[in-house]
Amino acid sequence: MASLRLLDLRCCRERLATIASWHQLEWQQQDLSERTRQLTTHLETEAIPTTLVALSGDCAVGSVSLVRYQRLGGYPASVWLANMYVVPELRLKGVGSRLVAGAEAEAARQGVEKLFLYTHDQENYYKKLGWHSLRQHRLAGRPATIMTRTLDEARNQKACG
Ligand SMILES: CC(C)(COP(=O)(O)OP(=O)(O)OC[C@H]1O[C@@H](n2cnc3c(N)ncnc32)[C@H](O)[C@@H]1OP(=O)(O)O)[C@@H](O)C(=O)NCCC(=O)NCCS
User: Does 77 sit in the ligand 1 pocket, CB within 6 Å?
Assistant: First the structure.
């Protein structure tokens, strides 16, 4: 694999259509136009919502987003890690770990102290990366595990530039 770097989607907007199509294929509950519309909102301000893109050489190979949900799973307004995706041919090579670490660093840089996520089938993966399971909840029509990670201030690098 060529050297890996993470870029804020605001710095590589031309990748948006590719990323929206990954998400639509992986999570089919929303159509492509809705996925595209949602990702476009990640370009509008410097703050969350934010999407990071993993690039191997000039090839987009993964994504992760930080989004704010008002009351997901009964939790008060908080920032959630979402849209975690690595292209099938580059899985198990550390791209996902880099994306999670990059999202955590970006969240910490934006003043977030605690992140949440939900997963239907990757609880063990996130546990391996230091996340803790909070509880089971039905989300997007299926059982899911809600997980959390407290961020320390040391991880504080900007992804863009
Ligand atoms: C989940 C996903 C993002 C993982 O990305 P990845 O790049 O393959 O993961 P990494 O290479 O960073 O894996 C890091 C470590 O976790 C392990 N791991 C990977 N998938 C795992 C799983 N499902 N369960 C437990 N451990 C797992 C790897 O073996 C690796 O271990 P090591 O450090 O001992 O070698 C990727 O499989 C994916 O895109 N899946 C489809 C979309 C999806 O399910 N997204 C998550 C939605 S919540």
Answer: no
